[in-house]
What we know:
Blueprint: H1 8-15, H2 21-34, H3 37-53, H4 58-72, H5 80-89, H6 96-109, H7 114-129, H8 137-158, H9 161-177, H10 183-199, H11 203-220, H12 223-239, H13 243-255, H14 263-279, H15 283-296, H16 305-319, H17 323-340, H18 343-359, H19 363-378, H20 384-398, H21 404-419
Amino acid sequence: MRDDHPTLETLARWLAGELEHEQVRLELAPHFLGNCPVCQAMSEEIDRLLAESGHWDEAVAVVESREAPELLRLLGEGPHAERMRRADEVEELHTWGVCQLLLAKVREQVFKDPSGAVETAHLAVRVAEHLGETYHPDWVLELRARSLAYLGNARRVLGELQGADDAFLLAEECLASSGVGDPRIAAEVLSLKGSLRLDQCRLEEAEDLVERSLALSRKAGDPVGVAKGLLQESKILNQTGELERAIAVLHEAASEIDPALEPVLLARARQNLLFTLSLAGHYEEASRLLDELRESLSVLAEPLDGLRLRWTEANIAQGLGRLGAAEEGYRKVQRELLDLGYSLDAALVSLDLATLLLEQGRTDELKLLATEVHVVFESREVHHVAVAALLLFQKACAEERITDELIRQIAADLRRERRGNGGGH
């Protein structure tokens, strides 16, 4: 119970309706909230909705957040062009809460259904364009920037890298025109653009964007933003071969995340740590983490998470000398990736299997693998870069000049191509 009562004069002015809003917020609200657990819980819920909605007004955050799901039904179903027309014409949709709910749906869709995420982001951009004088124009500009950045990120995941660049250019123009300068929004835009530069293999630009995003997240006291920035930093370190530093950064990222509030983000950080430990040859530690991670896999969004976990499990088995289990794992994952149409990933698994056969001196089987894999890939509609890489691999095997180094080089080329098409392992 709080005993810091308001003064007699403050209470009198409040009862007379003469107290300014800021004085009520600073002098009266803490006292009343501190003496009522129910009101305190509701205040915490309002704070959560404020953070979730990205709005500065408590009433807007609460009322519009609750109204948005029902209003969103006005968009209806059907072709995207028809829904875009409704987003233009149905005035009830032109609210902050509807735009924020659309952005939340983009986050849910982006890895499960990137095409759908692009369409939803387009709707958010359109709604943001129609927000009127009810909202401060600078805050509207920042909401438009956020919507455009989400559109750019969805296009990145879909592999539309030029379209993603165009969206980020517009997002930055909106931020530059706004006089607010919310560090959380600026950090998010920089972070998402950093992911694009990472996929484009423009590592210096990616590193600069991620550093700036991290600095803003730390300034804003945003642990989720900091954790996401650290995950991006670890990916850059992975690409530059600084695996021990990447591991340290991933441990730091996990320490920033509240598991109760951000279970998906924590699972993603631990999954990335597992991959990096395996790459760095820390197979015993990776094996222990693998057992823990299986339990949290269900919270992850990407459809490939289960396959990639089994792929890493085969890597770990190979590193621990359990070669039979590794070979079986590689062959199963390779087939499933091919069936799902992920040709670049399937080609990379084939190269992992090749290193295992080479390690055991199984030269004849290696030649047979190279021939079989090339035939399978040629018979399907798979990525031309994968076919070219495996043709080089087959030729090297046939001429008995295949080496670990050549396999690593072919794999590195494939990974660069996959990053340019929105992938990552």
